[in-house]
Amino acid sequence: MSKKVQYEIEYPVRCSPGILYEFLSTPAGLQEWFADKVDLKDNVFSFSWNGSVEEAEVLEQEEDEFIRLHWLHAPKEEYFEFRIQISEVTNETILVVKDFADKREVKDQSQLWDYQIKDLFHRIGN
C-alpha cells in the first residue's frame, strides 16, 4: 500500500473570512455545498452523500481562520483542512484546502476539490 502525500490547493475568494468560515465549519454551511446532509454531535461531523455516511472528527479550529478534520476511517496522521488567509499584497481572501491522497491520485482529488469549491463559490455568490 502506498503512503499518501499531503497536497494543498489555493482558491481566491470574494467573501469575508467570517462568512466563509460559516460555510466551512457549521452543519448548515457545509450542507450547502459539501454534502447532502450534515450533522454535528460531540465534535464529530456526519456527512451523507446518496445514503452513504462518513464521519470526521474536528481536530482543531480557530474561528475565521481554519478548521482541521480527520476522517474516522483514515490513518491518524491524515486530515483535511480549510484555512482562510488574507493576501498581504492584494488583501484578498484565500481559501487553502489541505488534504492527503495517493501520489498518483492527487490530480483527480484536486479536481474533485475544484468541483466542490466551485459549488461553494456559487452558494456564496462568488
From TrEMBL:
Gene3D superfamilies, per the entry: 3.30.530.20
SUPFAM superfamilies: Bet v1-like (SSF55961)
Superkingdom as given in the UniProt entry: Bacteria
InterPro entries assigned to the protein according to its UniProt record, in alphabetical order: START-like_dom_sf, START_2
Residues covered by the START-like domain: 1-125
The protein's name: ATPase
Species annotation: Chitinophaga caeni
Lineage start: Bacteria, Pseudomonadati, Bacteroidota, Chitinophagia, Chitinophagales
